[in-house]
Every structure is written in C-alpha cells, then in structure tokens.
Specification:
Blueprint (H helix, E strand, L loop, with lengths): L7 H31 L4 H25 L20 H27 L2 H25 L8 H23 L1
Length: 173
C-alpha cells in the first residue's frame, strides 16, 4: 500500500489550500458580521411604533378636550392650586415640569448634533414625561376644570415604557 501514501509536498499544498479557505471564510464571516452590525431595524417597526404613539396622543387629546371638557369652564388659573395656598407640592409640580422640559430641550439638542435614532427615542420619552408633568400642572392650577388625569397619566407612562423598550430593541441590534 505504498501507493496510497501522501508526500510532504502534497500535505503542504493541502495546508496552503486549507489556510486560504479559512482566510476566505473569515473574511466572509467578518463581512457578514459587519453588515449585521450596521443593519438598522426595518422601517415597518418604526412605523408601527409611530402609529402607536400617534394613536395614544390623539386619544389623549380627545379624552382631555372632548370627554373631560377641558377649557369649557373658563380656564381660571389659581396661583395656590387646589388648596389656594402655595405649598411644597405646588413647587414640586412646577419644578418637575420645568426640569422635564429642560431635559427634553437638552436631548433634542443632542439629537440635532448627532442624528442618532436612539437619542431621538430618548427625546420622545422625555417629551411624554414633560406632557405628564404638564397634566399635573393643569390639574393642580386650574381647579375648576375637573379633569381626571389618571387615565391620561397611565397612557403617557405606557408611551414612556414603549420608548425605552424600543430603545433596548434598537440597542440589541
């Protein structure tokens, strides 16, 4: 069976071919990995989330203006809030509303500079948080407008959580 023996020259040729094959395979895998890392989520997922956002915002406006009849009682602002005196709660409501709008502004400036979709989604979360705080402000300082904000608050909290879930989905990709 001496004829079936492989010489060292042939082994060297096979090793060379095998190393070229491994190099080619690594290049293909690296290219596929690079494409996968650059791949953004499909546009349809963005449209689905944007549709959910739009639905909840329209439903929130409909709920507050039409069902709760906000603005139909004269919009009388009371500086002391519901209890007619300025308390720590009134100052906290004003402070968190101002801080939430400041965070929204900072995140929008960051998005303008970087143009990253993740920063935009964080800006959306801050926007919904600012809306929620603004609803507390309306509820406290316009006491004649009997607006029940509990449902609207839960809807905005859902949108904030949806923003963070979408952010984690995009970050995983």
């Amino acid at each position: 069976m001496k004829g079936t023996r492989i010489s060292r020259k042939e082994i060297g040729g096979w090793n060379h071919a095998r190393s070229l094959f491994n190099l080619f395979r690594e290049v293909l895998l690296l290219e596929a990995w690079r494409r996968m890392k650059q791949k953004e989520p499909k546009a349809s997922s963005y449209y689905a989330v944007a549709g959910i956002y739009a639905f909840f915002i329209v439903a929130l406006v409909f709920y507050i203006v039409v069902l709760q009849q906000f603005g139909f009682h004269g919009l009388e602002f009371q500086i002391g809030g519901k209890d007619n005196i300025i308390t720590t709660l009134d100052l906290l409501i004003l402070g968190t509303t101002v801080a939430s709008f400041a965070l929204l502004g900072i995140s929008l400036i960051a998005f303008k500079r970087k143009k990253d979709i993740r920063i935009f989604i964080i800006s959306l979360a801050f926007f919904f948080f600012a809306l929620k705080e603004f609803l507390f402000l309306i509820d406290n300082f316009f006491p004649r407008e009997t607006v029940f904000i509990g449902h609207a608050e839960r809807g905005l909290e859902f949108l904030i959580l949806l923003s963070f879930m979408m952010l984690m989905y995009i970050y995983r990709r």
